[in-house]
């Protein structure tokens, strides 16, 4: 199943998460009009979230990603990414 | 070609091959540019753009989708990452660079102000948006300034609102967005606007801009980038 969640963060930026799930996460896509530096880091974030097995994993992986990879997000926060990914994950699991 | 040129300039500036650069440009044919993280199918009416000969291109910068029509002027600034006039803090640097546009608009008798993170507004209505990246040893910021707005084409090209909500969305858009034509009551040429912006950047940054053409290397690199990146489906439909 595919779960999608869209979050409009205060300030107006939009984050969209889409997760494909069938007993495990098959695909993760994060998109939107936020700013993230360096930009290519988004691919690494998607790859890491794909390895998650649970909601706790998603929280841990996303928070660690923003803490350890020296990624700067402007117009949203690490918590916003966690929320939108968790919502998409719950929907994908049905 | 415009996105290829911006990247080629940023690379040349970052490598110290050319001085810090400001470029003003328009788009022919018109185009929709989408932010690095955006999904083209979510943001753009692809069929409409194809039928009207409107290009679709992904930027290397984040931010939202922009329709670059005949009533729009785009600017690009590239400076070395350690350039003393630009703060290392990203939000602060948006403010400093947008000040050039604000100073330029003042020369047209327009009082504009910076709205964090990346917008410029006039009496609460947006007239300009910018996007910045930091790579190749450079800070690259490019942005759009609305001289006049073709709301119909914009709403057709971008998926701003569903068909049934369009009238309401257009009304809402007109409340939130303005143009230089609306503010000054006259039609301004791209050259006229580029000239005041040039003066605005000179004033706000305390610099003197010297008009120059692109270097041979920049043009060569831009052509390569256009062919191998910005004109490819792989890049534009990456997400």
Automatic annotation (TrEMBL), chain A:
One MF term in the entry's GO annotations: ligase activity
Keywords (A to Z) from UniProt: Ligase
Superkingdom of this protein's organism: Archaea
Protein name (Swiss-Prot/TrEMBL): Lipoate--protein ligase family protein
Source species: Thermoproteota archaeon
């Amino acid at each position: 199943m595919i779960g999608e969640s869209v979050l409009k963060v205060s300030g107006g930026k939009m984050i969209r998460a889409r997760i494909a799930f069938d007993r495990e996460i098959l695909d993760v896509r994060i998109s939107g009009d936020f700013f993230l530096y360096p930009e290519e880091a988004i691919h690494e974030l998607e790859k890491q979230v794909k390895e998650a097995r649970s909601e706790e994993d998603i929280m841990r992986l996303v928070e660690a990603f923003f803490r350890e990879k020296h990624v700067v997000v402007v117009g949203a926060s690490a918590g916003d990414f966690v929320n939108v990914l968790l919502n998409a994950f719950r929907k994908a699991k049905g | 070609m415009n996105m290829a040129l911006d990247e080629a300039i940023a690379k040349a500036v970052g490598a110290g091959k050319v001085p810090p650069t400001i470029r003003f440009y328009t788009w022919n044919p018109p185009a929709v540019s989408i932010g690095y993280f955006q999904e083209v199918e979510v943001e753009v009416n692809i069929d409409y753009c194809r039928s009207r000969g409107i290009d679709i291109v992904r930027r290397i910068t984040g931010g939202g989708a922009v329709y670059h029509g005949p009533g729009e002027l785009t600017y690009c600034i590239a400076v070395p990452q350690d350039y003393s006039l630009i703060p290392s803090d990203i939000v602060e640097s948006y403010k400093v660079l947008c000040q050039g546009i604000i100073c330029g608009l003042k020369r047209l008798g327009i009082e504009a102000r910076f709205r964090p993170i990346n917008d410029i507004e006039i009496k609460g209505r947006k007239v300009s948006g910018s996007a910045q990246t930091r790579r190749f040893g450079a800070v690259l910021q490019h942005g759009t300034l609305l001289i006049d707005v073709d709301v119909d084409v914009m709403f057709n090209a971008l998926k701003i609102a569903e068909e049934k909500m369009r009238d309401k969305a257009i009304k809402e858009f007109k409340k939130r967005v303005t143009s230089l034509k609306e503010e000054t009551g006259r039609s301004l040429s791209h050259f006229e606007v580029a000239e005041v912006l040039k003066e605005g950047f000179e004033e706000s940054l305390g610099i003197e801009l010297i008009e120059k053409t692109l270097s041979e290397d920049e043009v060569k690199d831009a052509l390569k980038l256009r062919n191998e990146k910005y004109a490819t489906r792989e890049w534009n439909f990456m997400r």
